[in-house]
Each structure stands twice: as structure tokens, then as C-alpha cells.
Amino acid sequence: MSEESSQATSFTSAERIRQLNEIDQDVSKLIHSAGLAIQALTNAKPSTPSSEVPDGSLESHKAQFKDATQQYFALLSSIDVRLRRQVYALEEASVLAPDPVSRTGDATGAGAAGGAGAGAASNPLDISWLNSRKDTVGKDKEAELWAAARGFVEQLDKSASRQKDTTKSNSDSEMQVD
């Protein structure tokens, strides 16, 4: 209920700028938490002191990663909600033209917009919305990594079989000498 009453009140320009500044500070926290999550996936010791002393075990790394990703997604959700409120305020002030597709946020609205070019002229946020749903880059990189891993395993298999063959031939020659 308090959220509805806060939406009904009108904010001054100074308050809006303060809110945007808070969002900006949270974006830096978001990047920091992403860095902590990536750092938890490595063997590096954390640079920031935490409540727990990391012992370098797998469980410790898992706990650090879980904490960092939870913080990341909580911040991301909070930033998203507050930025949407700012956009709605700009639409209400007639600074931005209202866009029904961005308010619904469903995939059917994007298809009705007539492609990537049609929606981009009415609202600059549409491009980022469409790009965030394009997942071919990740799939292409995954396929590339799997191919590289397959090649690496085949190379290891070949070198292991060569080593086995040379060991076998050396043992055969030793048997003949005896």
C-alpha cells in the first residue's frame, strides 16, 4: 500500500536526480558483485574482507559464489524496477512518448512492432530489449568451446595411446633381451 501512495506523490527534479544518483551507485555495486562472483570461480583469494575466512575449499567457493550471485540478482532487480519508475515518470511528464510494448514486456508485443527497425524509432529502449533476448552469441561461443574441448580430449587420447605404444614396444624389447 505504501508503494501505491508513493507513486501518487509527485517528485521534484532534485529528488529524481537523487534517485538516479542512487541507481548509479547501485550499478557500481552490481558490477562489484559480478566481479566477486567471477572471483569465487577462480582460485584467487578475495580482495575484500568478509565475515567468513575463505579456506580455499570447494564449499567455500560455492558459498562465496552463491552469496555474490544473490546480491547481483537482487541489485539487478532493484535497479530494473527503479529505472522503470524513472521512465514512467518521464512518460508522464511527456518527455518520452509512452510505449505500450515496453510496459507489457511480453514477446508478442515485440512481434507486433514489426521487427527491430519499427520499434526503434518510437522508443530507444526497444533495441536493448530485443538484444537482450538474442542468445545466438552465447550459443555460438558454447559450440566453439565444445569443439575446442573435443579437440583437446582427442589430442590427449592420441598422446596417451602413443605413450602406451612406446611403453609397450620398450617392454617387448626388454623381454627379448632377457
UniProtKB/TrEMBL annotation:
A Gene Ontology biological process term: regulation of transcription by RNA polymerase II
Bias (Basic and acidic residues): 156-167
Chief site of localization: nucleus
GO molecular function list: transcription coregulator activity
Keyword presence, Ribosomal protein: no
Region feature (Disordered): 99-124, 156-178
Residue ranges with Polar residues bias: 168-178
Cellular component terms per the entry's GO annotation: mediator complex
InterPro entries recorded: Mediator_Med11
Assigned keywords, A-Z: Activator, Nucleus, Transcription, Transcription regulation
Domain of life (superkingdom): Eukaryota
Subcellular location: Nucleus
Its biological purpose: Component of the Mediator complex, a coactivator involved in the regulated transcription of nearly all RNA polymerase II-dependent genes. Mediator functions as a bridge to convey information from gene-specific regulatory proteins to the basal RNA polymerase II transcription machinery. Mediator is recruited to promoters by direct interactions with regulatory proteins and serves as a scaffold for the assembly of a functional pre-initiation complex with RNA polymerase II and the general transcription factors.
Family: Belongs to the Mediator complex subunit 11 family.
Subunit structure: Component of the Mediator complex.
Protein's recorded name: Mediator of RNA polymerase II transcription subunit 11
GN (gene name): MED11
